[in-house]
């Protein structure tokens, strides 16, 4: 019942925000924040629940963005179809990347994912007939219904709905037998295998899900920005995405949302007059401090704050 | 293809590759003692290059003094890295992932600090290791003095590292702590000292690598991110993450592979080829190719 209250509150915030705030830049930023929240949610699933690491999420992000852009611009497909194709190709790449995870762990796996991200990035730069390379990919259509372009506010509602859907799917997966098997695999690989659970299948699924969310985020970004260049898909973006998941809290459903929105908006809050040069520097410093002093992440802290404000009791399942 | 071209490529590939190996050594030293990977490893290279540039070109100290000063500052940075990043995370129960993300963010922090203080444009590196047109001709192969100096510095460094690790007491305790931390602590070895030593060695070696790479890549942000760091990791992996000498060999083979793929295939796909080799090695032989001793060091 009280969980429903939370969800209703979240929906209310998403509905009210564009109505109360008409500033285009703020809305654009919030849209970017929601995209990052979707991506970070996928990473929370992959790292926090399934125990795998990926420092190449920007690769999937790029695959989703460029395939959706290619299929809508060059082949003239409608935007939803383009987005779905983007997700599908990204999920396939995720299945492929899960193969090394059967054998490798921790650092070695992260190295493979870094290499994957770099390879995708170089392909983006070098495959100019498809991606436009360093010159960029122009003229990607904006969201529209019929002939009416959506406003940034309506796009915000769309993204918010998609984010809630993603978190809900993750919630359901976590509480299915599949999710419990994944948590078991996170604790002990070998013991899970000896219980008759195929960890290979779980890893394939986890990578596929995270890659799918990253592809969705990329496709959404492509149509929001209308223009793609190789810059947002570098290794540093991948490390930012992991930072979002860790800062938000890896073991919490809200981790991706808190981290994604928080780390997208934080640099903007730091743009004081006269100090613009330093905001990226200070952002990375703040992230380091948060990681050192709050290894659990901000998600649980914010949840506790909400509990205190609304005098909710801690639920037994420790979820949401 | 002429034999001469092949020899020429071997000379240049091996020297750049050896510097990749030096970057990889930074990873190996930390892995041996604390079993963590410092993703801000390559930042030390950038800091080394910029510090040397500051001391040599801007302050006009001599080559030797600038070199010693920049390596000294980098050593201090290594101690700071341990005191302000590694220890606080360990005390608060943060795991490997926290260290990974903290060092990743440290990497962006240094990049942005350099952008703020020096600007984003690459700076020309003073020709201290020989200019573009200095070379020595052996037979029909021209060896630029720059490459000769890189070989020289790396050879001296390797002898120094061998000497420290094998002939001194602190090196002995370092190897003991690398083999078994608890047992070494029980035998009265100060593990804190060896940990600090590993941080200092890791950052210094990478800092020197940065100074050596600067004539090739300029004093630029390229040194603090991008693909050089990944190539350092790759050479460490080829050395099995535990063998310092194997790491240098791994770096050299990576450099050769790069140069010959530029020669025979295409320069645009050079990095893609070397990263694919990295993935293949990781999947097929994660214990490393140049790792002839299975135990640590």
Structure, briefly:
The complex is a heterodimer of chains A (320) and B (297). Chain A has 320 residues and is mainly alpha-helical.
Could you characterize the architecture of this molecule?
The complex is a heterodimer of chains A (320) and B (297). With 320 residues, chain A is an all-alpha fold. Chain A has one domain (2-233). Helix content of chain A is 72%, strand content 1%. Chain A has 14 helices and 2 strands. A two-stranded antiparallel ribbon of chain A has the order 1-2. Chain A starts with a helix and ends in a 10-residue tail after the last helix. The model of chain A is unreliable at 316-320 (pLDDT under 50). In chain B, helix 1 runs parallel beside helix 5 (145-167). In chain B, strand 1 and strand 2 form a beta hairpin. The mean pLDDT of chain B is 86.
Most extensive chain-chain interface: A-B, 41 and 43 residues
Please report the total strand number of chain A as a whole number: 2
Q: Looking across the biggest beta sheet of chain A, what order are the strands in?
A: 1-2
Q: Please state the CA-atom Rg of chain A, rounded to the nearest Å.
A: 19 Å
Give the helices and strands of chain A as they follow along the chain: HHHHHHEEHHHHHHHH
What does the secondary structure layout of this molecule look like, with pairings?
The complex is a heterodimer of chains A (320) and B (297).
Chain A: H1 2-20, H2 24-49, H3 57-73, H4 79-98, H5 106-126, H6 128-131, E1 144-145, E2 148-149, H7 152-174, H8 177-187, H9 189-194, H10 199-225, H11 235-248, H12 255-269, H13 279-293, H14 298-310
Antiparallel strand pairs in A: 1-2
Helix pairs in contact in A: 1-7, 2-7, 2-10, 2-11, 2-12, 3-4, 3-5, 3-10, 4-10, 8-10, 11-12, 12-13
Chain B: H1 3-34, H2 41-58, H3 63-91, H4 96-118, E1 135-138, E2 141-144, H5 145-167, H6 169-179, H7 181-186, H8 191-217, H9 227-238, H10 244-264, H11 270-284
Helix pairs in contact in B: 1-5, 1-8, 1-9, 1-10, 2-3, 2-4, 2-8, 3-8, 5-6, 6-8, 9-10, 9-11, 10-11
């Amino acid at each position: 019942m009280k969980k429903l209250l939370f969800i209703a509150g979240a929906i209310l915030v998403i509905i009210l925000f564009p109505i109360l705030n008409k500033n285009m830049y703020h809305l654009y930023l919030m849209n970017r924040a929601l995209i990052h929240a979707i991506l970070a949610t996928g990473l929370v699933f992959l790292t926090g629940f399934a125990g795998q690491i990926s420092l190449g999420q920007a690769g999937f992000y790029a695959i989703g963005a460029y395939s959706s852009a290619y299929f809508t611009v060059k082949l003239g497909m409608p935007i939803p179809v383009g987005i779905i194709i983007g997700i599908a190709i990204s999920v396939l790449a995720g299945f492929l990347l899960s193969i090394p995870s059967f054998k490798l762990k921790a650092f070695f796996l992260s190295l493979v994912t870094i290499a994957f991200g770099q390879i995708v990035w170089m392909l983006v730069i070098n495959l100019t007939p498809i991606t436009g390379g360093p010159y960029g990919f122009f003229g990607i259509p904006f969201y529209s219904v019929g002939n009416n372009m959506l406003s940034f506010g309506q796009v915000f509602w769309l993204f918010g709905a998609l984010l809630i859907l993603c978190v809900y799917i993750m919630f359901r997966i976590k509480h299915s037998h599949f999710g419990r098997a994944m948590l078991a695999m996170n604790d002990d690989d070998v013991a899970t295998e000896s219980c008759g659970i195929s960890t290979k299948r779980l890893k394939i699924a986890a990578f596929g899900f995270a890659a799918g969310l990253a592809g969705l985020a990329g496709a959404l970004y492509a149509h929001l920005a209308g223009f793609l260049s190789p810059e947002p898909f570098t290794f540093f973006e991948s490390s930012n995405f992991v930072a979002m998941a860790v800062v938000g809290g890896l073991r919490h459903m809200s981790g991706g949302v808190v981290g994604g929105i928080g780390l997208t908006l934080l640099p903007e809050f730091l743009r004081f007059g006269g100090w613009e040069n330093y905001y990226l520097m200070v952002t990375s410093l703040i992230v380091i401090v948060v990681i050192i002093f709050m290894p659990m992440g901000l998600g649980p802290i914010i949840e506790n704050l909400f509990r205190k404000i609304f005098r909710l009791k801690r639920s037994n399942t420790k979820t949401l | 293809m002429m034999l001469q071209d092949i020899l020429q490529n071997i000379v240049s590939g091996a020297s750049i590759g050896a510097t990749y190996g030096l970057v990889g050594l930074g990873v190996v030293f930390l892995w041996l003692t604390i079993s963590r990977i410092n993703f801000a490893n390559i930042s030390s290279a950038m800091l080394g290059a910029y510090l040397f540039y500051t001391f040599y070109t801007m302050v006009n100290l001599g080559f030797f003094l600038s070199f010693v000063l920049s390596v000294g500052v980098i050593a201090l940075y290594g101690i700071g890295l341990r005191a302000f990043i590694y220890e606080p995370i360990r005390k608060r129960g943060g795991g490997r992932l926290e260290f990974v993300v903290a060092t990743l963010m440290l990497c962006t922090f240094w990049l942005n600090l350099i952008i703020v203080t020096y600007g984003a444009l690459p700076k020309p590196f003073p020709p201290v290791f020989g200019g573009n047109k200095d070379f020595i001709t052996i037979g029909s192969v021209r060896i630029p003095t720059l490459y000769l100096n890189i070989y020289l510095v790396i050879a001296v460094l390797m002898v120094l590292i061998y000497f420290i690790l094998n002939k001194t007491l602190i090196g002995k305790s370092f190897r003991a702590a690398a083999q078994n931390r608890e047992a070494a602590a029980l035998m009265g070895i100060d593990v804190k000292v060896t940990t600090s030593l590993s941080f200092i060695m890791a950052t210094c070696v990478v800092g020197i690598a940065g100074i050596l790479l600067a004539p090739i890549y300029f004093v630029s942000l390229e040194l603090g991110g991008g693909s050089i760091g990944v190539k350092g990791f790759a050479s460490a992996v080829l050395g099995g993450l535990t063998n310092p000498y194997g790491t240098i060999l791994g770096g050299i083979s990576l450099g050769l592979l790069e140069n010959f793929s530029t020669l025979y295939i295409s320069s645009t796909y050079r990095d893609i080829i070397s990263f694919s080799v990295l993935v293949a090695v990781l999947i097929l032989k994660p214990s490393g190719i140049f790792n002839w001793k299975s135990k640590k060091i």
